[in-house]
Amino acid sequence: MLQALFSPAETQRSPSRFGKDLPQLLAIIVLALGALGIIAPFGWTIQGAFGDPAEAVRLPPQWIPTHPNLDNFNEMFDRLPFGLFMWNSVKIATAVTIGQLITTSTAAFAFARLRFPGRNTLFFILLASLMIPGQITLVPMFIVIRQLGLYNTHLALILPGLINPFGVFFLRQYFLTIPTDYEDAARVDGAGPIAIFLRIMLPLAAPGMATLGILTFVGVWNDFLGPLVFIQDENLLTYTVGLQKLQGIYGGALGPTAAGTVLGVIPVLIVFIVLQRYIVKSVIATGIKG
Questions:
Q1: What is the pTM of this model?
Q2: Residue 166 near residue 104, CB atoms below 8 Å
Q3: CA distance to 47, 76, 80, 132, 187, per residue, from 248 (Å)
Q4: Longest C-alpha distance within the chain, in Å?
Q5: pLDDT digits (tens, 9 = 90+) for 224-258
C-alpha cells in the first residue's frame, strides 16, 4: 500500500503539476500586489477622513483611526456648500451621460449599418478628431459659449459633452459584432431602420452602452478644467472645483480634504456597482466575438 502511494509515477507527476500552477500563482501574486498598491492610498485617505489630523501625517501610516469621528466632514460642510457641489456634479454628469448615449448610439448605428454617400470619409474625419487634444479647442469653445450666452451656466458644460467621437467609435465597433441575421429577419417582418435600431440593436448593445455610460460618467465627474473655465458663480461649482477650493481654504489640511475626497467617490462607486454586470457581459461578448 505504501509503495503504491509513493510510486515513481506519483513523484514524477507532482513537480509537473507544480510547474503548471507556478505561472498562475505568480500572476495572482502580481495582481495582489498591484491591487494593494491601488487600495493603499485610498485606505490612507479614508483614515485621514475619519481620524484626527495628527494621525493623518503619522509615519509609518496608521491605517485604522484611534477614535473615528465625523469632525472633518462637519468642518467641510461648515466652510463650503459641499452638498450643493455634489448635486451639481451629479446633475451635469447624469445629463451628459444620458445625452451622450443617445447621440453616440444613433451615430454609431448609422456608421455601422446604414449605407450613405461619404460614410467612410465622415468616419475618417471622426477618427481624426480623436487626435486633437481638448486643450486646443478650449479657447474656441469658450468664445462660442460666451457668444451663445451660456457662460456661467451648467449648459456650458452639458452641451459640449453631448458629442463624443470615442463613444461613436466604441459603439460602432460593438454594433459590428452583432450578427446581421437579426437585422435581416426584422426587415423580412417589415421593420425599418428606426425599429431595428430601437428594438434590436439597442437591447443587444446594452452591455457596451453601460460600459460607455460608466466611462462617460466618471470622466465628467472628474472633470476639473471645464467647470474652472466656464463656471464663476460659487453656487454652480462642481465637486472637483469645490474640492480644490476646500484645499485652498484649509491651506493643505488633510482632514477636510480627505473627507471631501471620500465623499466624492460614493456616486461613482454606486454607478459602478449598479452597472458592473453589464461590463462583465461586454467583456465576455467581446472575447467570444474576437
A1: 0.80
A2: no
A3: 21, 12, 12, 32, 61
A4: 91
A5: 989 999 998 889 999 999 888 887 766 666 778 88
